[in-house]
Amino acid sequence: MTYSDSSDRFIRNEREAKIAARADQLAGIFAERAPKHDLEGTFPFENFNELRGSGYLALTVPKQYGGEEASIYELVLSQERLARGDGSTALAIGWHIGLLKQLHLSGAIPEELFSELCLEVVHDGLVLNELVSERAMGSPTRGGKPETKAVKVEGGWLITGQKSYCTLSPILNKFIVAATMSDTDTVGSFIVEAGDGVKVLETWNTMGMRSTGSHDIAMNEVFVPDRYHIRGKASDQLRKPVPTDGNMLHIPACYLGIAHGARDFALSFAAKHQPNSLQVPIADLPNIKRLIGEIELDLITARTFLYDTADRWDKETGNRENLKIELGVAKHLATNAALRVVDHAMRIVGGLSLSKAFPLERMYRDVRAGLHNPPMDDVVITNLANRALGK
User: Fold this and answer.
1) Domain containing residue 382
2) pTM of the predicted model as reported, rounded to 2 decimal places
3) In angstroms, rounded to a whole number, what is the distance separating the alpha carbons of residues 380 and 387?
4) pLDDT digit string (tens) for 143-183?
5) Distance set, CA 379 to CA 45, 134, 176, 297, 329 (Å)
6) Are residues 320 and 376 in the same domain?
């Protein structure tokens, strides 16, 4: 029997319906808190307590360790629905669940260590992120080398440096950092524990995504035992890398979710708003219908490509290397569609859309952050051109 959900054709079975329902419930709660956290630029600790209590933190943890072992498709579905309520919370937790999926697929760390991390997520509510960016590097995806240093000492390493855009920093008890190793001058990755020598510098005060807690983290000779050196070993060069890029679809899922939330608000407003100069609500006006139609076209196009790409990535395990360009296209389409959708939603609502009493001005600011998440638009376009040219 084929499962169908008239509310969303991208929900294909009962498991996906449950995942979406949980995200919808959380999104409704988070939407109530979002304006205050956005205005004050504060981190929504209570949202992450809700995520812990609901089991959301273990969405991509393998079943053998007590998680749900969500596919990339299910990750996208859950994240898109969550972002309809609060983009900052969705983007922030996306890095956590995406990283767990990446570590599981890649086998980049020993199974014993990975199982320890997973059990901490399931039982203790551990939240993880990988900190790569530095202010002197620019985008890490463009090949910058970290200035953070890892100096070899007996039994481990001393890590010194400062990372930027450290999303989730207020609640990171453990995190992964990239550092240049002193003995080989190559880049390695290390699990660092919060504590002596680790300090969160509250630098995050931005136009959009104000509640992600993406502050800087400074490290001063932080000791990391050898078992927490997880990438950059000589043995890594002997293994063929496993494509794990599908986890990055959490980014376009988030921005499409924000756009969908803006669409829902604009539709509700248009159906009810009737100035005294009109005999009908503004939803009946031809120019408003045109804007609504363009919103629907953008969402249908971007969502279809996003979900199709996620589904292909899950199923075509032997073709994942060739799907990297499609992953970039999905992000490009979703982010730019989200910008247009929120803009159209604001045009529908009119001058009231600029008011902080409504969510649209926050959504407008939040979706712009997508332009600065990887991969960048120019990289996506260049990759398409190179493929067309056979390069």
Assistant:
1) 245-388
2) 0.95
3) 11
4) 678 999 999 999 999 999 999 999 999 999 999 999 999 88
5) 35, 20, 26, 25, 10
6) yes
